[in-house]
TrEMBL record, chains A, B:
The protein's name in its UniProt record: Transcriptional regulator MntR
Gene3D superfamilies on file: 2.30.30.90, Iron dependent repressor, metal binding and dimerisation domain, Winged helix-like DNA-binding domain superfamily/Winged helix DNA-binding domain
Organism: Psychroflexus aurantiacus
Job description of the protein: In the presence of manganese, represses expression of mntH and mntS. Up-regulates expression of mntP.
Organism ancestry: Bacteria, Pseudomonadati, Bacteroidota, Flavobacteriia, Flavobacteriales
Cell compartments where the protein resides: Cytoplasm
Length: 217, 217
DNA sequence: ATTTAAATTTAGACAAAACTAAAAATAATT
DNA sequence: AATTATTTTTAGTTTTGTCTAAATTTAAAT
């Protein structure tokens, strides 16, 4: 149907457009895709010809309905494969991303519907991100960044914003994991760092950490 | 490491060189790869530059030791994925090939070693073909084509030569499956067709069938 | 309102992997 | 041995996705 490159662009546009209502800029896409702006312009034109995006020169790019659907299909596959790798193949959550980046492009409806069934229809991937169903629907959880909580508030860790291997390994080392209860014990005004209670442990974490952890109150 | 196309060529050369000790001809490779002879020449030169094959103009192509190793790695992945699809995702043996053709190119050592473990180190794929281990070693079963058996001889069905969906569906329809015992009851001299007893069933099969079934006596 | 800076697009080139058409080498026939 | 047929290679294009360098447009700063 679509090339590897086209699929990756659609996914990147999807992720970038979440942050604002404006069109996705050429430079932002180039950064996300690790390529040059000129290459982005070329590809965006092609996607526009295929009616996957809406694009006007210098105005940024928007996903069309069919582009959005295609992006969600790839995201669904990516996240299902991540679940498979963690649940069945003993991968840890910091190891799955690159492999899922490849697996998400395998073309087979049956493969993905059977995988979904095999995994017992998971609702979230190992990083807490929602898995769209076959129709592209998914529930957006009402979650808050840990950095937005005040002293005394508590909730459950339901997701991470930064999914880099480095950050995830830091969390592992400090026994910070999905599903655990976190309470803000104190916040330092100077640098915004927090003292948090996470189950039996109590530790101080920087804003780089608190701004990348999602809490459900 | 290697491109999709390079990997597919190596695999094709591996499969073609099994049949004879001579080099694999350009035309044979073109046929196998569903492409033109001129494209094959180009690619073979590239593989030769990378020391994956030994190639002299007009003399056919041979896999080098490193080319052979690479081919076996891909075949290992292909067959492990086929087992996964059949054993875990309810695919039938005639549905797995195309998907495995894509999955075999996913690059991750851990993925494949964990998949191997998850499947409990299978020795053969759903078509009876041996699965090389991580070192590329595998046992070649001593098997005979059903067409080479004589009346009265019997053995176990251990593999199929033709793995096309059409042939496999024919076998399913007639309850001919891996592991079953087959006995040759009679052979028609005119067209070579055989009357075979397979467990409870008795049926007549053509040479197109008998020449594509492997038996272990 | 100009000027300067930043973002974006165009023009031209390149590598990978394919193709067609023509040339060259090898194999098969007379 | 000479001719013909087949196989294989070369030469020249094409497509996809990328790049650099230059031109253009938009945004920011005097
Ligand atoms: Mn991921
Ligand atoms: Mn994820
Ligand atoms: Mn196969
Ligand atoms: Mn097989």
């Amino acid at each position: 149907m679509f090339s590897l490159s086209e699929e990756n662009y659609l996914k990147a546009i999807f992720h970038l457009q979440k942050h604002s209502t404006a069109g996705v800029s050429t430079n932002a896409l180039a950064e996300e895709m690790q390529t040059k702006a000129s290459s982005v312009t070329d590809m965006v034109k092609k996607l526009s010809d295929k009616k996957l995006v809406v694009y006007k020169k210098y105005q940024g790019v928007y996903l069309s309905e069919s582009g959005r659907k295609t992006a969600l299909k790839i995201i669904r596959k990516h996240r299902l494969w991540e679940v498979f790798l963690v649940e069945k193949l003993n991968f840890s959550w910091d190891e799955v991303h690159d492999v899922a980046e490849e697996l998400e492009h395998i073309k087979s409806e049956k493969l993905i519907s059977e995988l979904d069934k095999f995994l017992d229809y998971p609702k979230r991937d190992p990083h807490g991100d929602p898995i769209p169903d076959a129709q592209g629907d998914f529930q957006v959880a009402n979650k808050t960044l840990l950095s937005d909580l005040s002293t005394g508030e508590k909730g459950t860790l339901v997701g991470v914003k930064d999914t880099s291997s480095e950050f995830l390994k830091y969390l592992d080392k400090n026994k910070i994991a999905l599903g655990k209860t976190i309470e803000v014990m104190d916040q330092e005004k100077f640098d915004g760092s927090m003292l948090i209670q996470i189950e039996k442990n109590r530790l101080r974490v920087s804003t780089q950490v608190t701004a990348n952890i999602y809490i459900k109150i």
